[in-house]
Protein: Tetratricopeptide (TPR) repeat protein
Amino acid sequence: MKLSIPAAFRLSTLPSVTVLALALLGAVSSVPAAERAAAPKQADPTTASIEPLLAGEFALQSGRLDEAAHWYLQAAKASGDVALAERATRIALLAKNDKLAGEALALWRKQGGDSASLQAAEATVALRRGSDRQARKHLVALMQRSGDEGWRQAFGVLLTGDPQQSAKLLERLVDDGEIPHRLQAWLAFGGLAQKLEQPQLAERIVAEVVRQFPGEPRVALLRASQLREAGKPDEARQVLAPLAEQAGNDPELRLAIASEYDALGDQKAAAAALARGPQDDQTYALRASLLARAEDKTTLTALYDELRGTASRPDPGRRMLLGQLAEFLERYEEALDWYRGVPGGPQRWQARLRAANVMHELKRDKEAYAELAAIQSDVTADDEARRDAYLLEAALRQEDKNSAGELDAYARGLAAFPDDPDILYARALGWERRDDIPRAEADFRKILVSDPDSVAALNALGYTLADRTTRYREALELIDRARAAEPDNAAIIDSYGWVLYRLGRKQDALVELRRAFALQKDAEIAAHLAEVLWELGKQDEARKYFDEAAKLDPDNRSLKRALERTGASGVAAGANK
Structure:
Protein backbone atom coordinates (compact mmCIF):
# COMPACT_ATOMS: atom_id res chain seq x y z
CA MET A 1 0.00 0.00 0.00
CA LYS A 2 1.02 3.61 -0.41
CA LEU A 3 0.28 6.45 1.97
CA SER A 4 -0.28 9.92 0.55
CA ILE A 5 1.90 12.49 2.29
CA PRO A 6 1.18 16.23 1.89
CA ALA A 7 3.80 18.35 0.15
CA ALA A 8 4.61 20.23 3.33
CA PHE A 9 5.65 16.99 5.02
CA ARG A 10 7.78 15.61 2.16
CA LEU A 11 11.39 16.45 2.25
CA SER A 12 21.67 18.44 3.71
CA THR A 13 21.64 19.88 6.93
CA LEU A 14 23.95 22.82 7.79
CA PRO A 15 27.22 21.82 9.43
CA SER A 16 27.31 22.95 13.03
CA VAL A 17 29.43 26.05 13.43
CA THR A 18 28.98 25.64 17.19
CA VAL A 19 31.30 22.61 17.06
CA LEU A 20 33.90 24.62 15.16
CA ALA A 21 33.61 27.51 17.58
CA LEU A 22 34.02 25.29 20.62
CA ALA A 23 37.03 23.65 18.98
CA LEU A 24 38.58 27.06 18.48
CA LEU A 25 37.91 27.90 22.12
CA GLY A 26 39.68 24.68 23.08
CA ALA A 27 42.64 25.58 20.89
CA VAL A 28 42.98 29.00 22.53
CA SER A 29 42.73 27.69 26.07
CA SER A 30 45.27 24.93 25.44
CA VAL A 31 48.16 27.42 25.20
CA PRO A 32 50.27 27.17 28.42
CA ALA A 33 49.60 29.94 30.93
CA ALA A 34 53.23 31.01 31.01
CA GLU A 35 53.31 31.50 27.26
CA ARG A 36 50.06 33.46 27.36
CA ALA A 37 51.44 35.72 30.06
CA ALA A 38 54.65 36.34 28.12
CA ALA A 39 52.89 37.13 24.87
CA PRO A 40 52.26 40.80 24.04
CA LYS A 41 48.67 41.81 24.71
CA GLN A 42 46.94 42.42 21.38
CA ALA A 43 43.57 41.61 19.86
CA ASP A 44 43.38 37.99 18.76
CA PRO A 45 41.04 37.80 15.73
CA THR A 46 40.20 34.19 16.51
CA THR A 47 39.19 35.02 20.08
CA ALA A 48 37.36 38.16 18.99
CA SER A 49 35.22 36.19 16.53
CA ILE A 50 34.20 33.42 18.95
CA GLU A 51 31.44 35.30 20.74
CA PRO A 52 29.65 36.61 17.63
CA LEU A 53 30.17 33.24 15.92
CA LEU A 54 28.42 31.42 18.76
CA ALA A 55 25.70 34.07 18.92
CA GLY A 56 25.17 33.71 15.16
CA GLU A 57 24.90 29.94 15.37
CA PHE A 58 22.45 30.05 18.26
CA ALA A 59 20.32 32.63 16.44
CA LEU A 60 20.38 30.47 13.32
CA GLN A 61 19.34 27.40 15.32
CA SER A 62 16.43 29.45 16.70
CA GLY A 63 15.25 30.54 13.27
CA ARG A 64 16.13 34.20 13.86
CA LEU A 65 17.79 34.83 10.51
CA ASP A 66 18.22 38.61 10.86
CA GLU A 67 20.10 38.16 14.13
CA ALA A 68 22.15 35.29 12.69
CA ALA A 69 23.21 37.37 9.70
CA HIS A 70 24.17 40.27 12.00
CA TRP A 71 26.35 38.11 14.24
CA TYR A 72 28.00 36.23 11.39
CA LEU A 73 28.87 39.57 9.85
CA GLN A 74 30.45 40.67 13.14
CA ALA A 75 32.42 37.41 13.29
CA ALA A 76 33.60 37.93 9.70
CA LYS A 77 34.76 41.46 10.49
CA ALA A 78 36.61 40.32 13.61
CA SER A 79 38.31 37.32 12.03
CA GLY A 80 38.87 38.46 8.46
CA ASP A 81 37.53 35.04 7.40
CA VAL A 82 36.11 35.18 3.87
CA ALA A 83 34.02 32.04 4.51
CA LEU A 84 32.20 33.79 7.35
CA ALA A 85 31.55 36.82 5.14
CA GLU A 86 30.04 34.49 2.55
CA ARG A 87 27.93 32.78 5.23
CA ALA A 88 26.70 36.15 6.52
CA THR A 89 25.72 37.16 2.99
CA ARG A 90 23.78 33.97 2.34
CA ILE A 91 21.89 34.17 5.63
CA ALA A 92 21.04 37.84 5.07
CA LEU A 93 19.71 36.98 1.62
CA LEU A 94 17.54 34.26 3.13
CA ALA A 95 16.30 36.74 5.72
CA LYS A 96 15.57 39.19 2.89
CA ASN A 97 17.51 41.81 4.81
CA ASP A 98 18.91 43.79 1.89
CA LYS A 99 20.88 46.22 4.06
CA LEU A 100 22.76 43.46 5.88
CA ALA A 101 23.20 41.48 2.67
CA GLY A 102 24.79 44.48 0.95
CA GLU A 103 27.16 45.08 3.87
CA ALA A 104 28.14 41.41 4.11
CA LEU A 105 28.62 41.23 0.35
CA ALA A 106 30.92 44.27 0.39
CA LEU A 107 33.00 42.63 3.12
CA TRP A 108 33.10 39.34 1.23
CA ARG A 109 34.39 41.18 -1.85
CA LYS A 110 36.90 43.21 0.21
CA GLN A 111 38.30 40.09 1.86
CA GLY A 112 39.22 38.62 -1.50
CA GLY A 113 36.12 36.83 -2.70
CA ASP A 114 36.09 36.55 -6.50
CA SER A 115 34.23 33.32 -7.12
CA ALA A 116 31.18 32.67 -9.26
CA SER A 117 29.28 32.37 -5.98
CA LEU A 118 30.18 35.96 -5.13
CA GLN A 119 29.06 37.14 -8.56
CA ALA A 120 25.77 35.24 -8.12
CA ALA A 121 25.23 36.88 -4.75
CA GLU A 122 25.89 40.29 -6.35
CA ALA A 123 23.22 39.53 -8.94
CA THR A 124 20.76 38.39 -6.27
CA VAL A 125 21.24 41.53 -4.19
CA ALA A 126 20.77 43.69 -7.29
CA LEU A 127 17.54 41.86 -8.08
CA ARG A 128 16.29 42.39 -4.54
CA ARG A 129 16.97 46.09 -4.86
CA GLY A 130 15.04 46.22 -8.12
CA SER A 131 18.14 47.08 -10.14
CA ASP A 132 17.67 44.91 -13.23
CA ARG A 133 20.54 46.67 -14.95
CA GLN A 134 23.06 45.75 -12.25
CA ALA A 135 21.65 42.25 -11.99
CA ARG A 136 22.03 41.77 -15.73
CA LYS A 137 25.64 42.99 -15.58
CA HIS A 138 26.52 40.33 -13.02
CA LEU A 139 24.57 37.63 -14.85
CA VAL A 140 26.42 38.42 -18.09
CA ALA A 141 29.74 38.21 -16.23
CA LEU A 142 28.71 34.78 -14.95
CA MET A 143 27.76 33.64 -18.44
CA GLN A 144 31.17 34.69 -19.73
CA ARG A 145 33.12 32.64 -17.20
CA SER A 146 34.93 29.64 -18.63
CA GLY A 147 33.55 26.21 -17.82
CA ASP A 148 30.06 25.44 -16.58
CA GLU A 149 30.07 26.96 -13.10
CA GLY A 150 29.26 30.48 -14.26
CA TRP A 151 26.11 29.77 -16.26
CA ARG A 152 24.95 27.30 -13.62
CA GLN A 153 25.21 30.02 -10.97
CA ALA A 154 23.30 32.41 -13.25
CA PHE A 155 20.65 29.74 -13.73
CA GLY A 156 20.37 29.39 -9.95
CA VAL A 157 19.91 33.13 -9.48
CA LEU A 158 17.09 33.25 -12.02
CA LEU A 159 15.47 30.07 -10.72
CA THR A 160 15.28 31.37 -7.16
CA GLY A 161 14.30 34.95 -7.95
CA ASP A 162 10.90 36.56 -8.42
CA PRO A 163 9.52 34.53 -11.39
CA GLN A 164 8.25 37.58 -13.27
CA GLN A 165 11.49 39.51 -12.81
CA SER A 166 13.55 36.42 -13.73
CA ALA A 167 11.52 35.91 -16.90
CA LYS A 168 12.28 39.46 -18.08
CA LEU A 169 15.99 39.06 -17.43
CA LEU A 170 16.16 35.67 -19.12
CA GLU A 171 14.47 37.09 -22.21
CA ARG A 172 17.00 39.94 -22.29
CA LEU A 173 19.91 37.49 -21.99
CA VAL A 174 18.53 35.49 -24.91
CA ASP A 175 17.93 38.66 -26.96
CA ASP A 176 21.53 39.76 -26.44
CA GLY A 177 23.04 36.36 -27.26
CA GLU A 178 24.53 35.89 -23.79
CA ILE A 179 23.71 32.19 -23.35
CA PRO A 180 26.99 30.28 -23.83
CA HIS A 181 27.36 27.87 -26.73
CA ARG A 182 26.84 24.78 -24.59
CA LEU A 183 24.00 22.35 -25.14
CA GLN A 184 23.40 21.81 -21.43
CA ALA A 185 23.15 25.56 -20.84
CA TRP A 186 20.57 26.04 -23.58
CA LEU A 187 18.57 23.03 -22.41
CA ALA A 188 18.63 24.32 -18.83
CA PHE A 189 17.48 27.82 -19.74
CA GLY A 190 14.84 26.40 -22.08
CA GLY A 191 13.52 24.35 -19.20
CA LEU A 192 13.65 27.43 -16.98
CA ALA A 193 11.52 29.39 -19.44
CA GLN A 194 8.91 26.63 -19.17
CA LYS A 195 9.06 26.65 -15.37
CA LEU A 196 8.58 30.42 -15.43
CA GLU A 197 5.49 29.88 -17.63
CA GLN A 198 6.95 31.74 -20.62
CA PRO A 199 5.91 29.54 -23.57
CA GLN A 200 6.90 32.02 -26.28
CA LEU A 201 10.37 32.43 -24.82
CA ALA A 202 10.70 28.65 -24.46
CA GLU A 203 9.79 28.27 -28.13
CA ARG A 204 12.42 30.83 -29.14
CA ILE A 205 15.06 28.99 -27.12
CA VAL A 206 14.11 25.67 -28.69
CA ALA A 207 14.40 27.18 -32.17
CA GLU A 208 17.85 28.53 -31.32
CA VAL A 209 18.98 25.20 -29.87
CA VAL A 210 17.82 23.40 -33.02
CA ARG A 211 19.83 25.87 -35.09
CA GLN A 212 22.98 25.56 -32.98
CA PHE A 213 22.82 21.81 -32.30
CA PRO A 214 21.12 20.13 -35.27
CA GLY A 215 20.28 16.46 -34.85
CA GLU A 216 20.79 16.42 -31.07
CA PRO A 217 18.05 14.17 -29.59
CA ARG A 218 17.84 16.05 -26.29
CA VAL A 219 16.73 19.11 -28.22
CA ALA A 220 13.73 17.13 -29.43
CA LEU A 221 13.01 16.22 -25.81
CA LEU A 222 12.97 19.89 -24.87
CA ARG A 223 10.68 20.60 -27.80
CA ALA A 224 8.30 17.84 -26.71
CA SER A 225 8.30 19.18 -23.16
CA GLN A 226 7.56 22.68 -24.43
CA LEU A 227 4.64 21.44 -26.54
CA ARG A 228 3.26 19.52 -23.57
CA GLU A 229 3.45 22.60 -21.36
CA ALA A 230 1.71 24.60 -24.09
CA GLY A 231 -1.22 22.19 -24.03
CA LYS A 232 -0.35 20.46 -27.34
CA PRO A 233 0.02 16.79 -26.31
CA ASP A 234 -0.55 15.35 -29.80
CA GLU A 235 2.23 17.47 -31.27
CA ALA A 236 4.50 16.47 -28.36
CA ARG A 237 3.88 12.80 -29.15
CA GLN A 238 4.75 13.40 -32.79
CA VAL A 239 8.14 14.74 -31.71
CA LEU A 240 8.75 11.85 -29.30
CA ALA A 241 7.77 8.98 -31.61
CA PRO A 242 10.83 9.00 -33.93
CA LEU A 243 13.10 9.81 -30.99
CA ALA A 244 11.99 6.69 -29.11
CA GLU A 245 12.90 4.53 -32.10
CA GLN A 246 16.47 5.90 -32.12
CA ALA A 247 17.19 5.58 -28.38
CA GLY A 248 17.47 1.80 -28.01
CA ASN A 249 21.14 1.70 -26.98
CA ASP A 250 21.13 4.86 -24.84
CA PRO A 251 19.58 3.96 -21.45
CA GLU A 252 19.72 7.54 -20.18
CA LEU A 253 17.87 8.84 -23.24
CA ARG A 254 15.32 6.03 -23.03
CA LEU A 255 14.61 6.98 -19.44
CA ALA A 256 14.22 10.66 -20.36
CA ILE A 257 11.79 9.80 -23.18
CA ALA A 258 9.80 7.56 -20.85
CA SER A 259 9.68 10.37 -18.30
CA GLU A 260 8.27 12.75 -20.92
CA TYR A 261 5.63 10.24 -21.99
CA ASP A 262 4.77 9.77 -18.32
CA ALA A 263 4.34 13.54 -17.93
CA LEU A 264 1.94 13.38 -20.88
CA GLY A 265 -0.08 10.81 -18.95
CA ASP A 266 0.80 8.08 -21.46
CA GLN A 267 2.32 5.44 -19.20
CA LYS A 268 1.86 2.71 -21.82
CA ALA A 269 4.05 4.60 -24.32
CA ALA A 270 6.55 5.29 -21.54
CA ALA A 271 6.83 1.57 -20.81
CA ALA A 272 7.20 0.83 -24.52
CA ALA A 273 10.08 3.32 -24.76
CA LEU A 274 11.86 1.57 -21.89
CA ALA A 275 11.28 -1.82 -23.51
CA ARG A 276 13.58 -0.93 -26.40
CA GLY A 277 17.19 -2.00 -25.96
CA PRO A 278 18.95 -3.94 -23.16
CA GLN A 279 16.94 -4.72 -20.02
CA ASP A 280 17.85 -5.13 -16.37
CA ASP A 281 15.85 -5.52 -13.15
CA GLN A 282 15.55 -1.76 -12.69
CA THR A 283 14.17 -1.33 -16.22
CA TYR A 284 11.76 -4.22 -15.72
CA ALA A 285 10.57 -2.71 -12.44
CA LEU A 286 10.01 0.72 -14.03
CA ARG A 287 8.09 -0.83 -16.91
CA ALA A 288 5.95 -2.81 -14.48
CA SER A 289 5.17 0.29 -12.43
CA LEU A 290 4.19 2.28 -15.52
CA LEU A 291 2.00 -0.50 -16.90
CA ALA A 292 0.31 -0.91 -13.53
CA ARG A 293 -0.51 2.81 -13.43
CA ALA A 294 -1.81 2.56 -17.01
CA GLU A 295 -3.93 -0.42 -15.89
CA ASP A 296 -2.59 -2.26 -18.94
CA LYS A 297 -2.89 -5.75 -17.53
CA THR A 298 -2.43 -7.42 -20.92
CA THR A 299 1.08 -6.02 -21.46
CA LEU A 300 1.88 -6.40 -17.77
CA THR A 301 0.90 -10.05 -17.89
CA ALA A 302 3.16 -10.59 -20.92
CA LEU A 303 6.04 -8.98 -19.01
CA TYR A 304 5.29 -11.16 -15.99
CA ASP A 305 5.25 -14.32 -18.11
CA GLU A 306 8.52 -13.33 -19.78
CA LEU A 307 10.26 -12.86 -16.44
CA ARG A 308 8.69 -15.92 -14.85
CA GLY A 309 10.48 -18.10 -17.39
CA THR A 310 13.85 -16.83 -16.11
CA ALA A 311 13.18 -17.38 -12.40
CA SER A 312 14.36 -20.97 -12.04
CA ARG A 313 17.51 -19.78 -10.33
CA PRO A 314 17.01 -18.57 -6.71
CA ASP A 315 17.89 -14.95 -7.46
CA PRO A 316 16.45 -12.80 -4.61
CA GLY A 317 16.15 -9.64 -6.68
CA ARG A 318 14.34 -11.32 -9.54
CA ARG A 319 11.93 -13.11 -7.23
CA MET A 320 11.20 -9.86 -5.41
CA LEU A 321 10.44 -8.24 -8.77
CA LEU A 322 8.15 -11.11 -9.77
CA GLY A 323 6.35 -10.82 -6.46
CA GLN A 324 5.77 -7.13 -7.09
CA LEU A 325 4.54 -7.81 -10.63
CA ALA A 326 2.12 -10.42 -9.32
CA GLU A 327 0.91 -7.84 -6.79
CA PHE A 328 0.33 -5.30 -9.55
CA LEU A 329 -1.69 -7.96 -11.39
CA GLU A 330 -3.61 -8.75 -8.19
CA ARG A 331 -2.40 -12.34 -8.43
CA TYR A 332 -1.86 -12.31 -4.72
CA GLU A 333 -1.36 -16.03 -4.12
CA GLU A 334 1.42 -16.08 -6.71
CA ALA A 335 2.91 -12.93 -5.21
CA LEU A 336 2.93 -14.62 -1.82
CA ASP A 337 4.76 -17.62 -3.28
CA TRP A 338 7.39 -15.42 -4.87
CA TYR A 339 7.98 -13.45 -1.69
CA ARG A 340 8.23 -16.60 0.39
CA GLY A 341 10.70 -17.96 -2.14
CA VAL A 342 13.22 -15.15 -1.61
CA PRO A 343 16.04 -17.25 -0.15
CA GLY A 344 17.95 -14.65 1.81
CA GLY A 345 20.14 -11.60 1.48
CA PRO A 346 19.07 -8.00 2.05
CA GLN A 347 15.79 -8.62 0.20
CA ARG A 348 14.63 -11.24 2.70
CA TRP A 349 13.09 -8.85 5.21
CA GLN A 350 11.55 -6.65 2.54
CA ALA A 351 10.01 -9.79 1.04
CA ARG A 352 8.50 -10.75 4.40
CA LEU A 353 7.03 -7.27 4.81
CA ARG A 354 5.56 -7.40 1.31
CA ALA A 355 4.17 -10.84 2.06
CA ALA A 356 2.33 -9.44 5.08
CA ASN A 357 0.89 -6.70 2.90
CA VAL A 358 -0.29 -9.30 0.35
CA MET A 359 -1.95 -11.36 3.08
CA HIS A 360 -3.83 -8.23 4.12
CA GLU A 361 -4.97 -7.78 0.50
CA LEU A 362 -6.19 -11.40 0.59
CA LYS A 363 -8.28 -10.51 3.69
CA ARG A 364 -6.12 -12.88 5.73
CA ASP A 365 -5.70 -10.19 8.34
CA LYS A 366 -4.82 -12.47 11.26
CA GLU A 367 -1.97 -14.01 9.27
CA ALA A 368 -0.78 -10.60 8.09
CA TYR A 369 -0.62 -9.15 11.58
CA ALA A 370 0.92 -12.37 12.95
CA GLU A 371 3.68 -12.13 10.33
CA LEU A 372 4.36 -8.51 11.26
CA ALA A 373 4.43 -9.43 14.96
CA ALA A 374 6.93 -12.19 14.14
CA ILE A 375 9.21 -9.72 12.36
CA GLN A 376 8.88 -7.22 15.21
CA SER A 377 10.07 -9.82 17.73
CA ASP A 378 12.68 -11.56 15.56
CA VAL A 379 16.10 -10.91 17.10
CA THR A 380 17.80 -11.89 13.85
CA ALA A 381 16.03 -9.13 11.93
CA ASP A 382 17.86 -5.85 11.46
CA ASP A 383 16.48 -2.80 13.26
CA GLU A 384 15.22 -1.19 10.07
CA ALA A 385 13.08 -4.23 9.19
CA ARG A 386 11.66 -4.45 12.71
CA ARG A 387 10.85 -0.73 12.77
CA ASP A 388 9.25 -0.94 9.31
CA ALA A 389 7.07 -3.79 10.57
CA TYR A 390 5.55 -1.43 13.14
CA LEU A 391 5.08 1.28 10.49
CA LEU A 392 3.43 -1.14 8.07
CA GLU A 393 1.16 -2.47 10.80
CA ALA A 394 0.05 1.08 11.63
CA ALA A 395 -0.60 1.78 7.94
CA LEU A 396 -2.68 -1.39 7.55
CA ARG A 397 -4.64 -0.62 10.73
CA GLN A 398 -5.33 2.84 9.30
CA GLU A 399 -6.56 1.23 6.07
CA ASP A 400 -8.84 -0.95 8.20
CA LYS A 401 -10.14 2.26 9.85
CA ASN A 402 -8.93 0.84 13.14
CA SER A 403 -7.75 4.03 14.82
CA ALA A 404 -7.02 2.38 18.16
CA GLY A 405 -5.00 -0.36 16.47
CA GLU A 406 -2.99 2.18 14.47
CA LEU A 407 -2.10 4.14 17.60
CA ASP A 408 -1.27 0.94 19.47
CA ALA A 409 1.16 -0.08 16.69
CA TYR A 410 2.92 3.28 17.00
CA ALA A 411 3.04 2.98 20.79
CA ARG A 412 4.58 -0.50 20.65
CA GLY A 413 7.01 0.65 17.98
CA LEU A 414 8.16 3.52 20.18
CA ALA A 415 8.48 1.16 23.14
CA ALA A 416 10.83 -0.99 21.04
CA PHE A 417 12.59 1.98 19.42
CA PRO A 418 12.31 4.91 21.84
CA ASP A 419 11.90 8.27 20.11
CA ASP A 420 12.53 6.77 16.66
CA PRO A 421 12.11 9.73 14.27
CA ASP A 422 10.36 7.77 11.52
CA ILE A 423 7.72 6.38 13.88
CA LEU A 424 7.25 9.73 15.59
CA TYR A 425 6.92 11.45 12.22
CA ALA A 426 4.33 8.94 10.99
CA ARG A 427 2.36 9.24 14.23
CA ALA A 428 2.49 13.04 14.05
CA LEU A 429 0.93 12.87 10.59
CA GLY A 430 -1.75 10.63 12.07
CA TRP A 431 -2.51 13.13 14.82
CA GLU A 432 -2.64 15.95 12.26
CA ARG A 433 -5.03 13.90 10.13
CA ARG A 434 -7.27 13.56 13.21
CA ASP A 435 -7.05 17.33 13.83
CA ASP A 436 -5.23 16.70 17.12
CA ILE A 437 -2.65 19.43 16.61
CA PRO A 438 -1.23 19.47 20.19
CA ARG A 439 -0.26 15.80 19.95
CA ALA A 440 1.12 16.23 16.43
CA GLU A 441 3.23 19.12 17.69
CA ALA A 442 4.46 17.05 20.65
CA ASP A 443 5.72 14.29 18.35
CA PHE A 444 7.43 16.69 15.96
CA ARG A 445 9.12 18.36 18.93
CA LYS A 446 10.33 15.01 20.25
CA ILE A 447 12.13 14.52 16.94
CA LEU A 448 13.70 17.95 17.28
CA VAL A 449 14.91 17.21 20.82
CA SER A 450 17.12 14.39 19.53
CA ASP A 451 17.82 15.96 16.15
CA PRO A 452 17.46 19.77 16.28
CA ASP A 453 18.52 20.00 12.63
CA SER A 454 15.84 17.65 11.25
CA VAL A 455 14.72 19.60 8.21
CA ALA A 456 11.65 17.41 7.71
CA ALA A 457 10.44 17.93 11.29
CA LEU A 458 11.20 21.66 11.27
CA ASN A 459 9.27 22.17 8.06
CA ALA A 460 6.37 19.89 9.03
CA LEU A 461 5.92 21.50 12.45
CA GLY A 462 6.28 25.01 11.05
CA TYR A 463 3.74 24.32 8.34
CA THR A 464 1.33 22.70 10.81
CA LEU A 465 1.47 25.74 13.11
CA ALA A 466 1.03 28.09 10.15
CA ASP A 467 -1.85 26.12 8.66
CA ARG A 468 -3.73 24.90 11.72
CA THR A 469 -3.06 27.51 14.43
CA THR A 470 -2.52 31.27 14.75
CA ARG A 471 1.06 30.90 16.06
CA TYR A 472 2.46 32.36 12.86
CA ARG A 473 5.63 33.96 14.26
CA GLU A 474 6.67 30.69 15.87
CA ALA A 475 5.89 28.89 12.63
CA LEU A 476 8.04 31.35 10.70
CA GLU A 477 11.05 30.73 12.95
CA LEU A 478 10.78 26.96 12.45
CA ILE A 479 10.39 27.29 8.68
CA ASP A 480 13.30 29.73 8.54
CA ARG A 481 15.50 27.13 10.23
CA ALA A 482 14.50 24.64 7.53
CA ARG A 483 15.10 27.27 4.81
CA ALA A 484 18.58 27.93 6.13
CA ALA A 485 19.42 24.26 5.62
CA GLU A 486 17.68 23.72 2.26
CA PRO A 487 16.90 27.09 0.65
CA ASP A 488 15.87 25.60 -2.70
CA ASN A 489 13.52 22.89 -1.40
CA ALA A 490 10.11 23.44 -3.01
CA ALA A 491 8.16 22.04 -0.04
CA ILE A 492 9.95 24.41 2.34
CA ILE A 493 9.46 27.39 0.02
CA ASP A 494 5.76 26.48 -0.10
CA SER A 495 5.62 26.47 3.71
CA TYR A 496 7.41 29.82 3.78
CA GLY A 497 4.99 31.34 1.28
CA TRP A 498 2.04 29.97 3.24
CA VAL A 499 3.16 31.42 6.57
CA LEU A 500 3.80 34.79 4.88
CA TYR A 501 0.23 34.68 3.61
CA ARG A 502 -1.07 33.85 7.08
CA LEU A 503 0.91 36.83 8.39
CA GLY A 504 -0.91 39.07 5.92
CA ARG A 505 2.09 39.53 3.61
CA LYS A 506 0.18 38.46 0.52
CA GLN A 507 2.44 39.93 -2.18
CA ASP A 508 5.55 38.41 -0.60
CA ALA A 509 3.68 35.12 -0.27
CA LEU A 510 2.74 35.20 -3.95
CA VAL A 511 6.39 35.53 -5.02
CA GLU A 512 7.45 32.56 -2.88
CA LEU A 513 4.54 30.33 -3.91
CA ARG A 514 5.22 31.06 -7.59
CA ARG A 515 8.83 30.01 -6.97
CA ALA A 516 7.74 26.83 -5.24
CA PHE A 517 5.39 25.86 -8.06
CA ALA A 518 8.08 26.60 -10.65
CA LEU A 519 10.37 24.17 -8.80
CA GLN A 520 7.76 21.46 -8.28
CA LYS A 521 4.35 20.94 -9.87
CA ASP A 522 2.42 19.83 -6.79
CA ALA A 523 -1.32 19.96 -5.98
CA GLU A 524 -0.85 21.44 -2.53
CA ILE A 525 1.46 24.20 -3.77
CA ALA A 526 -0.96 24.97 -6.61
CA ALA A 527 -3.86 25.18 -4.11
CA HIS A 528 -1.92 27.60 -1.90
CA LEU A 529 -0.96 29.72 -4.90
CA ALA A 530 -4.57 29.76 -6.12
CA GLU A 531 -5.90 30.86 -2.72
CA VAL A 532 -3.44 33.74 -2.46
CA LEU A 533 -4.24 34.87 -6.02
CA TRP A 534 -7.94 34.71 -5.18
CA GLU A 535 -7.47 36.87 -2.09
CA LEU A 536 -5.50 39.38 -4.17
CA GLY A 537 -8.45 39.72 -6.54
CA LYS A 538 -6.88 37.71 -9.38
CA GLN A 539 -9.71 35.19 -9.65
CA ASP A 540 -9.13 34.18 -13.27
CA GLU A 541 -5.52 33.24 -12.63
CA ALA A 542 -6.52 31.59 -9.36
CA ARG A 543 -8.98 29.32 -11.19
CA LYS A 544 -6.16 28.25 -13.49
CA TYR A 545 -4.17 26.98 -10.49
CA PHE A 546 -7.22 25.45 -8.84
CA ASP A 547 -7.73 23.48 -12.07
CA GLU A 548 -4.04 22.52 -12.09
CA ALA A 549 -4.26 21.29 -8.49
CA ALA A 550 -7.39 19.28 -9.27
CA LYS A 551 -5.66 17.59 -12.21
CA LEU A 552 -2.66 16.69 -10.06
CA ASP A 553 -4.63 15.41 -7.06
CA PRO A 554 -8.39 15.95 -6.91
CA ASP A 555 -8.57 14.61 -3.34
CA ASN A 556 -5.89 16.89 -1.92
CA ARG A 557 -6.99 18.20 1.48
CA SER A 558 -5.39 21.63 1.01
CA LEU A 559 -7.23 22.02 -2.28
CA LYS A 560 -10.57 21.16 -0.70
CA ARG A 561 -9.98 23.59 2.15
CA ALA A 562 -8.93 26.36 -0.24
CA LEU A 563 -12.05 25.87 -2.37
CA GLU A 564 -14.23 25.97 0.73
CA ARG A 565 -12.58 29.11 2.08
CA THR A 566 -12.67 31.02 -1.21
CA GLY A 567 -15.95 29.70 -2.57
CA ALA A 568 -14.18 29.32 -5.92
CA SER A 569 -16.18 27.69 -8.70
CA GLY A 570 -15.49 26.30 -12.14
CA VAL A 571 -12.68 23.95 -11.11
CA ALA A 572 -12.48 20.27 -11.99
CA ALA A 573 -15.41 18.37 -10.52
CA GLY A 574 -13.13 15.81 -8.92
CA ALA A 575 -11.84 18.42 -6.46
CA ASN A 576 -15.30 18.90 -5.00
CA LYS A 577 -15.86 15.30 -3.97
In short: The chain has a mean pLDDT of 85. The two ends are 22 Å apart (CA to CA). The chain has 33 helices and no strands.
